Amino acid sequence: MRTADRAPAWRTRVTAAAVVVVLAALDLGLKAWAERGLTAGRTIELPVVGLRLAHNPGIAFSLADTLPTAVLLTGIGVIITGIAVLTWRATGPGSSMAWPPLAVILAGAIANFADRAGDGVVTDYLHTGWWPTFNLADTYITCGALALAVLALRPARTGASTGSETEYDAR
């Protein structure tokens, strides 16, 4: 493979890694702020979503909250590894459209994993009153998954210049 063929993949991979690092750091910073600045049981009402400190020992919607932390971390670590591999493959030569949502999902998963590794719980701080309290990493995972679903539902299109099909998959 020529250097010219590798350069775009290299740039895409660096960009994907930067997205993951910046988004995960933003969520972890907000979680640290929530731990210091919010009082448990008290909600700060804001126009769209309130702020309320909560701790989730399980995964989404407190599922598996009775499992030992080591079991959760191991399972989540395996899932993160799989998402990282998919992201790496999606950023390879001829990058697919799947890499941005995969990078966003990876950022959310890593941020929640890092938060849980410290004390066995995930810090949540966004509260709607009609939905379980959640955090920014949860929104990354949800929005990334929705974007992947949209990409999966889009029909393959014919490339204008080559006449070849372009697929929207994670390769």
Could you explain the architecture of this structure?
With 171 residues, the chain is mostly helical. It has one domain. Helix content is 56%, strand content 11%. It has helices at 3-37, 69-90, 99-119, 136-153; strands at 43-44, 50-56, 122-127, 157-158, 165-166. The strands form 2 sheets. A 3-stranded antiparallel sheet has the order 1-2-3. Strands 4-5 form a two-stranded antiparallel sheet. Strand 1 (43-44) and strand 2 form a beta hairpin. Helix 1 packs across helix 3 (99-119), helix 2 (69-90) packs antiparallel against helix 3 (99-119) and helix 3 (99-119) packs antiparallel against helix 4 (136-153). The chain starts with a helix and ends in a 5-residue tail after the last strand.
Structural class: mainly alpha
Give the H and E element order. HEEHHEHEE
Whole-number count of domains? 1
Cα end-to-end separation: 19 Å
Question: Helix fraction?
Answer: 55-70%
Low-confidence stretches: 1-5, 161-168
**Rg, alpha carbons:** 19 Å
Number of strands: 5
Q: Main β-sheet, in a few words? A: 3 strands, antiparallel
Percentage of residues in strands: 5-15%
Enzyme class: hydrolase
Main location: membrane
GO biological process, one term: proteolysis
Catalytic activity: Release of signal peptides from bacterial membrane prolipoproteins. Hydrolyzes -Xaa-Yaa-Zaa-|-(S,diacylglyceryl)Cys-, in which Xaa is hydrophobic (preferably Leu), and Yaa (Ala or Ser) and Zaa (Gly or Ala) have small, neutral side chains
